[in-house]
Specification:
Helices cover 51% and strands 7% of the residues. The protein has 182 residues and is mainly alpha-helical. Bound molecules: iron/sulfur cluster.
Length: 182
């Protein structure tokens, strides 16, 4: 990758952050080469666990939840010491940019569109009383849905929930089409 190309990929990730902020993943598994104690000492909230979304190795191994506590704006506070999966991960959009299948400007427009959809989802969640920014987006939507099914909603909230359902669908379309690899 030449210098210009590297700058383009860095610019994309610095404008995005969706793989760290709880939009793409619920949690990230540690890989065999990771040192869980060292990462925990750095502030990663490592938990032993079973189910996970990001990371391929160690199905029942340790993991840490998203949004990542090291994620700061679109920067990583632990970049030099970040876990192996974070080093390895490339979303589809980044792979396309790296391979020259998409131009930087077009890729940035997709990131802007996705982030706008995230913002809409967050606004509607807050309107429904969910302010749990520390939780992954998909978990929040499931929790809201469970609450709606259990307690019901008045007419105004029901309309908001309908808008939220559509907004989550719109967001998932762009995530599935442009970001999730494979
Ligand atoms: S989702 Fe893709 S473009 Fe966005 S920060 Fe992660 S790797 Fe970079």
């Amino acid at each position: 990758m030449n210098v210009e190309h590297r700058a383009a990929t860095e610019a994309l990730c610095l404008a995005c952050g969706l793989c760290c902020n709880g939009v793409l993943f619920v949690d990230v598994r540690l890989q065999p080469e990771d040192d869980a104690a060292r990462l925990a000492a750095l502030g990663f909230p490592i938990k032993p666990g079973a189910a996970s979304c990001a990371g391929r190795a160690g199905a029942n191994g340790p993991r840490f939840a998203q949004p990542c506590t090291a994620h700061d704006g679109c920067r990583c506070r632990a970049y030099e010491a970040r876990p192996a999966y974070c080093r390895q991960f490339e979303c589809l959009l980044l792979s396309d940019l790296t391979a020259g299948r998409i131009k930087k400007e077009a890729a940035l427009r997709i990131v802007q569109r996705a982030r706008k959809r995230v913002a809409t989802v967050l606004r509607l969640m807050r309107d429904l009383g969910d302010c749990h920014d520390e939780r992954p987006l998909s978990t929040r939507f499931k929790q809201i849905t469970r609450r709606v099914e259990k307690e019901g909603l008045d007419e105004a909230a029901s309309e908001t929930y309908g808008k939220l359902t559509l907004a989550v669908h719109d967001l998932n379309l762009i995530l599935a089409g442009a970001f999730y690899p494979g």
